[in-house]
C-alpha cells in the first residue's frame, strides 16, 4: 500500500489527484462539520426541552393563580350570602372546593356546601366544617331533575306541594325565585 500512497502523493505534487494530507484534511473537515452539526442539533433539542419546561411551569403557575382567584371568589360569594361561618377558608383545586371553618348551625353548614357546590366549575365539595351549636336539624340533599318544580319536590318529599316555601326558605339565599331552579342543582330538603 505504501507505493500507492507514494504515487498519489507524487500525482498531487504535479497537479493530479490529492495528497494523503489533503484527503486527511478533507476528512477531518467533514468530521468537524458533522460534529458541529450534531452539537447544533443537541443544542436545539436542549433549547426545545428548556422552552417546553418553561411553558409547562408557566401553565402550572397560571393554573395556580386561576385556582387562587376561584378560591377567593367562592369565599366572597359565601360571605356575600350572609352565611355565618367563622374562620372560613375555601381552597379550590381542579374542580374540587375544600371548605374549612365553623358554621353557626347545621343548616348554615348545609347552605355553605350547597352554595359552593352549585357554583360554576365546582364538581366536588370536600368540607371540614364544624358546627358551633348542635341544633340537630335533619335534612336531605336533592338533585333537581329536568322538569322538576319546588311544588313537585315538596309533593314528593312531604306529600304536600303547598309546603314548597319550606324548601325555598331552606335554600335562601342561593335561590332568589321559587320558579328558578335548574337540572343538576342540589337543594336542601329540611325534614
The gist of it:
Helices cover 53% and strands 18% of the residues. By secondary structure, the protein is α+β, with helices and mostly antiparallel strands.
Describe this structure in words.
The chain is an alpha+beta fold. The chain has a domain at 138-191: Membrane-bound Lytic Murein Transglycosylase D, Chain A (Roll), CATH 3.10.350.10. It has helices at residues 2-13, 20-80, 106-117, 150-158, 164-170; strands at 85-93, 96-103, 124-131, 139-143, 186-190. The radius of gyration is 37 Å and the shape is rod-shaped. It starts with a helix and ends with a strand.
Number of helices, where a helix is a run of at least 4 consecutive DSSP H or I residues: 5
The number of distinct β-strands equals 5
Adjacency order of strands in the biggest sheet: 1-2-3
Q: Which superfamily, in CATH terms, is the homologous superfamily of the domain at 138-191?
A: LysM domain
Taken as a percent bin, the fraction of beta residues is: 15-25%
Structural class: alpha+beta
Q: Which fold name fills CATH's third level, the topology of the domain at 138-191?
A: Membrane-bound Lytic Murein Transglycosylase D, Chain A
Largest sheet: 3 strands, mixed
Low-confidence runs of at least 5 consecutive residues = none
Envelope shape? rod-shaped
CATH classification class of the domain at 138-191: Alpha Beta
Write the H/E string, N to C.
HHEEHEEHHE
Helix content: 40-55%
Amino acid at each position: 500500500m505504501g507505493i500507492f500512497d507514494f504515487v498519489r502523493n507524487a500525482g498531487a505534487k504535479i497537479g493530479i489527484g490529492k495528497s494523503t494530507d489533503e484527503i486527511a484534511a478533507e476528512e477531518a473537515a467533514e468530521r468537524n462539520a458533522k460534529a458541529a452539526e450534531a452539537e447544533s442539533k443537541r443544542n436545539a433539542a436542549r433549547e426545545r426541552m428548556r422552552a417546553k419546561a418553561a411553558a409547562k411551569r408557566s401553565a402550572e403557575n397560571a393554573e395556580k393563580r386561576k385556582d387562587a382567584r376561584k378560591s377567593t371568589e367562592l369565599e366572597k360569594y359565601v360571605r356575600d350570602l350572609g352565611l355565618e361561618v367563622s374562620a372560613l377558608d375555601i381552597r379550590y383545586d381542579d374542580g374540587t372546593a375544600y371548605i374549612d371553618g365553623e358554621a353557626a348551625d347545621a343548616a348554615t353548614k348545609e347552605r355553605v356546601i350547597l352554595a359552593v357546590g352549585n357554583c360554576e366549575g365546582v364538581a366536588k365539595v370536600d368540607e371540614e366544617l364544624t358546627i358551633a351549636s348542635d341544633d340537630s336539624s335533619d335534612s336531605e340533599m336533592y338533585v333537581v331533575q329536568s322538569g322538576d318544580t319546588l311544588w313537585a319536590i315538596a309533593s314528593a318529599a312531604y306529600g304536600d306541594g303547598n309546603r314548597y316555601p319550606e324548601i325555598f326558605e331552606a335554600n335562601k339565599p342561593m335561590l332568589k325565585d321559587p320558579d328558578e331552579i335548574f337540572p343538576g342543582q342540589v337543594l336542601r330538603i329540611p325534614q
